[in-house]
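Work Package 4 report. The design task specified in the project plan requires that, given a folded chain encoded as C-alpha cells, an amino acid be chosen for each position. We show below one input record used in the internal validation round.
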C-alpha cells in the first residue's frame, strides 16, 4: 500500500512524481509561480516529509525560467529552517539537474548562504544524477 502522504502533484510551475519511491522526481517548470502555486508546492514538500521513510530526490529545472520572486525565496528559506532536522534525517541526497548557467549560479549562491541539510550535487545530466542518488540510498 502506498503511503498516504506520497502523492503525485502538478501545477503550471511545479510537478512531483513519487511513483518510484524512495526516488522522487521534482520538476521546476519555466513559469514563475503565483502565491497559490508556490503554497501548493510547499504543501507537497510538507507531505513528503510527513512520511517516515528515507528518500532521495532529483529536481530538474526546465526551460529558462524557474526563478523565484523574493517573497517565495524567503518563504522557502523559512520552511527549510523550520524543517531542517526532519530533512537531515529523511533525505539521503538531492540532485539538481540543469543545463542553465544561470540556474547553476543561483543554486551555488543559495547553497553558499544556506547549505541543504543533506548531501547534494548539481549536474547537467539526468543519468549522472540518478546514479549518484542510487548510491546515496545505499549508504
Amino acid at each position: 500500500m502506498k503511503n498516504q502522504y506520497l502523492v503525485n502533484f502538478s501545477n503550471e510551475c511545479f510537478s512531483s512524481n513519487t511513483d518510484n519511491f524512495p526516488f522522487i522526481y521534482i520538476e521546476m517548470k519555466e513559469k514563475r509561480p503565483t502565491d497559490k502555486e508556490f503554497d501548493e508546492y510547499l504543501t507537497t514538500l510538507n507531505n513528503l516529509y510527513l512520511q517516515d521513510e528515507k528518500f532521495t530526490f532529483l529536481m530538474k529545472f526546465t526551460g529558462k525560467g524557474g526563478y523565484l520572486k523574493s517573497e517565495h525565496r524567503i518563504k522557502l528559506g523559512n520552511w527549510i529552517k523550520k524543517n531542517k532536522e526532519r530533512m537531515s534525517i529523511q533525505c539521503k541526497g538531492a540532485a539538481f539537474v540543469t543545463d542553465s548557467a544561470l540556474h547553476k549560479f543561483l543554486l551555488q549562491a543559495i547553497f553558499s548562504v544556506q547549505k541543504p541539510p543533506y548531501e547534494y550535487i548539481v549536474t547537467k545530466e539526468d543519468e549522472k544524477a540518478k546514479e549518484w542518488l542510487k548510491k546515496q540510498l545505499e549508504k
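The CA atoms of residues 19 and 52 lie 16 Å apart. Validation will be extended to a larger panel in the next phase.
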